[in-house]
Amino acid sequence: MRRLARGSAALFLACAALIPASAWACPFCFSGSPKVRMAFFGTTVLLSLLPLGMISAGVVWIRRVGRGMWAEEFDDSDPVP
Amino acid sequence: MSPVLPIREAGPSAAFRRGLVENASFGMALFVFTEVMLFAGFISAFVIVHSGSRTPWPPPGQPRLPAEQTAINTIALLASGVCLYYAGKKFRGPRPKSAAPWMGAALALAAFFVIFQGMEWLALLRQGMTLTSSQLGSFFYVIVGAHALHAVAAIVALAISWAMLQAGRLTRSQLGAVQLFWYFVVLVWPFLYWKVYL
Q1: Considering the entire predicted model, what is its pTM?
Q2: Which of A72, B21, B28, B136 could pair covalently with B177 via S-S, beta carbons 3.0-4.6 A apart?
Q3: What fold is seen in the domain B27-38+69-129+137-197?
Q4: Residue B48: which of A42, A40, A44, A34 has the closest Cα?
Q5: Which residues of A touch B (CB under 8 A)?
Q6: Rounded to an integer, what distance in angstroms lies between the CA atom of residue A78 and that of residue B196?
Q7: Do residues A29 and B49 make contact, with C-beta atoms less than 8 angstroms apart?
Q8: Residue of A43, A48, A72 to mutate, interface with B, max B Cβ within 10 Å
Q9: What is the ipTM of this complex?
C-alpha cells in the first residue's frame, strides 16, 4: 500500500514537471539595454562565484592550519621511543 | 599505505586535542557565510534595479545620500575593526586584561557609527525619503537597516565580551567568535557604501 502511494506521488510529480506554466520575466526588471544585461551578468557571476570562493578559502585555510598543527604534533625531532 | 607516526607517551597535546577551529568560531563562520550571501543578494537586486532605472538617480523628489558625512562614519567603523584586532592580540598575550582599553575603543567607535547612522536616517526621513517613497528609499532602508541591525547585535556582543573580560571570564573561543562577527560587519560596510552611496 505504501509502495503504491509513493509510486503515485512520484508519478504525479513527474507529470506536474511536464506541464510548467510559461515563465514571464518581470516586466520591470527585464530590459534589453546593454547596461541591464551587464548588471544581470555581473550579479550572476558574483552570486555564483562568491560561495564557491568562500568555501575554497575555508578549505585552503583549514588545510594550511591543519598541516602546521600536524607537523608540530608529529615533529621529526621528537624522541621516538 | 599510511605513514608510521611516532607515538607520544603523553598522548596528543592540548592544542592538538582542541582541534583546528574553536566550536564558537566555526559556528560563527557558518553564520557569517550565510550573511555574506544575504548582503550579496541585496546588492545584486539593488544593482539591477539601479541599472534598469529609466529616471535619473536619485529619483526626482528624493534627497541625495550624504556620501561625504558617511565617509567619516566609514573610517570610524574601520578604525573600530582595527581596535578589536589589537584587543585580540593583547588578549592572547601574557596579560589578557590589557585588551580592555582596545575593546572599549572598538565599542565606542561602533556606537558612534550606529548613532551617526541613526542621525542620518532622521535627516533623510525629514527630507521625505521613506521606505515607500521610491526604489532608492526602499533599498536604502532595507540594506543599510539590515547592516545597522547586525551592527547593533555585534555591539551588544562586544559589550558583553567587555564585561566578561573585566570579570576575568572571557575565553579565547568567545572572543574569537565576536571578533569574526564584528570583522564581517566592518568589512561588508565599504561594499555597501560603494554601491549604495556612491
Answers
A1: 0.81
A2: B28
A3: Four Helix Bundle (Hemerythrin (Met), subunit A) (1.20.120)
A4: A40
A5: 28-29, 31, 33, 35-36, 38-40, 42-43, 46-47, 50-51, 54, 58, 62, 65-66, 69, 72-74, 78, 80-81
A6: 57
A7: yes
A8: A43
A9: 0.80
- Taking any CB pair shorter than 8 Å as contact, residues of chain B touching chain A are 5-9, 12-13, 15-16, 20-21, 29, 33, 36-37, 40-41, 43-44, 47-52
pLDDT of A75 over the 90 cut: no
Which triple of cell numbers denotes residue A47?
552570486
Asked if B81 and B181 count as a contact pair (C-beta separation under 8 A), the reply is no
Sign of CA dihedral A77, A80, B4, B10: negative
Ordered by start, the domain boundaries in chain B are 27-38+69-129+137-197
B55 to each of B33, B61, B110, B139, B169, how far by Cα in Å?
Answer: 35, 11, 36, 16, 56
Tens digit of each residue's pLDDT (9 = 90 or more) over B35-81? 999 999 999 999 998 988 888 888 888 899 999 999 999 999 999 99
Give the three cell numbers for residue B146. Answer: 539590515
Contact by Cβ (8 Å): B189, B74 = yes
Band the pLDDT of A16: cuts 50, 70, 90.
confident
Q: Which of A28-42, B122-136, B179-193 has the highest mean pLDDT?
A: B179-193
Inter-chain contact B52–A38, Cβ cutoff 8 Å? no
pLDDT in tens, B156-184: 999 999 999 999 999 999 999 999 999 99
